[in-house]
């Protein structure tokens, strides 16, 4: 059980379950109905509706369709998004994946499982190269830096590095993850591991930037300041981007999930604002080449 998966009896609350539950709760509230009225539509107990809305249990497709009909929701896009989110959540709850072979702790265990199930991710990173684009040498250098976090050190060094490498297979699968990232220039001028690690990392970033499913942009020093400099965040999509997103926000000694709603929308808007003020894709790759030559 991860920090993001509280347990209640035999039920487990998941990030996607809570995201779906929040959508169902919002639809019921908009329709002006109570939990007992929703329960009647499913011939179920009020307790079941409470569990569905809190993300404690998986939701079946017939229940979603019945609730949407009761709430007056007929938009195929909305219904399809709910069904897709429910499907991914059900699979996530019962699935075993590559991450079970590594000693991944805490919220990160839930994150890598969601990353594996996602269709698209937008990542803003002001301090480091994003994990999906890190070389093994860069990952090893992060482990040996004197300011490595206590949480990071809970996982053995080589286990940590190999888990990072395993995550990256998602970018090259038969249905590859769409990955858009913006990296602050400071993260590319303050390298762990010295010049050799930096050269290898720059070369890898340039190669990855040319893949059709990956977009790498750099936010330069001269573009000014913005709220994103407070810390990194990843926006994870499982259906149509924006419809059912969850956001993973990371700080040095804490992580949290933003499970939809206005706050998730605000993060998406912030990412797009950062991207708009960043260098274009070609300019970003040119800067990477230039920084490599300066080493």
Provide a brief overview of the structure:
With 295 residues, this protein is an alpha/beta fold. The protein is 49% helix and 13% strand.
Main attributes of the structure:
single chain, about 300 residues, alpha/beta, 434 Repressor (Amino-terminal Domain), Endonuclease, Chain A, two-stranded antiparallel ribbon, about 50% helix, elongated, disordered N terminus
Structure overview:
- The structure is a single chain.
- The chain is α/β, with parallel strands linked by helices and 295 residues long.
- Helix content is 49%, strand content 13%.
- The strands form two sheets. It has a six-stranded mixed sheet with strand order 5-4-3-6-7-8, with helices on both faces.
- Helix 1 packs antiparallel against helix 5 (76-94), helix 7 runs antiparallel to helix 9 (157-167) and helix 10 (194-209) packs antiparallel against helix 12 (281-294).
């Amino acid at each position: 059980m991860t920090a993001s998966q509280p347990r209640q009896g035999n039920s487990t609350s998941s990030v996607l379950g809570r995201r779906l539950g929040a959508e169902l709760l919002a639809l019921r509230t908009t329709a002006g109905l109570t939990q007992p009225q929703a329960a009647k539509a499913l011939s179920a107990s009020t307790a079941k509706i409470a569990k569905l809305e809190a993300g404690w249990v998986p939701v079946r497709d017939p229940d979603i369709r019945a609730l949407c009909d009761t709430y007056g929701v007929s938009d195929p896009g909305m219904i399809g998004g709910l069904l897709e989110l429910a499907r991914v959540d059900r699979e996530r709850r019962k699935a075993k994946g590559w991450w079970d072979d590594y000693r991944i702790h805490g919220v990160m265990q839930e994150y890598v499982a969601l990353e594996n199930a996602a269709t698209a991710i937008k990542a803003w990173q002001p301090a480091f190269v994003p994990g999906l684009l890190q070389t093994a040498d860069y990952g090893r250098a992060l482990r040996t830096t004197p300011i490595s976090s206590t949480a990071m050190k809970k996982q053995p060094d080589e286990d940590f590095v190999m888990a990072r490498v395993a995550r990256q297979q998602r970018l090259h699968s038969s249905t590859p993850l769409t990955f858009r990232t913006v990296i602050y220039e400071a993260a590319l001028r303050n390298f762990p591991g010295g010049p050799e690690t930096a050269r290898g990392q720059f070369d890898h970033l340039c190669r990855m930037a040319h893949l059709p499913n990956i977009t790498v942009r750099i936010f330069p020093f001269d573009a000014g300041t913005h709220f994103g400099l407070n810390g990194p965040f990843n926006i994870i999509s499982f259906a149509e981007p924006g419809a059912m997103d969850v956001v993973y926000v990371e700080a040095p000694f804490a992580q949290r999930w933003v499970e939809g709603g206005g706050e998730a929308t605000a993060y998406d808007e912030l990412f797009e604002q950062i991207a708009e003020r960043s260098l274009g894709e070609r300019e970003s790759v040119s800067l990477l080449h230039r920084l490599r030559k300066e080493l």
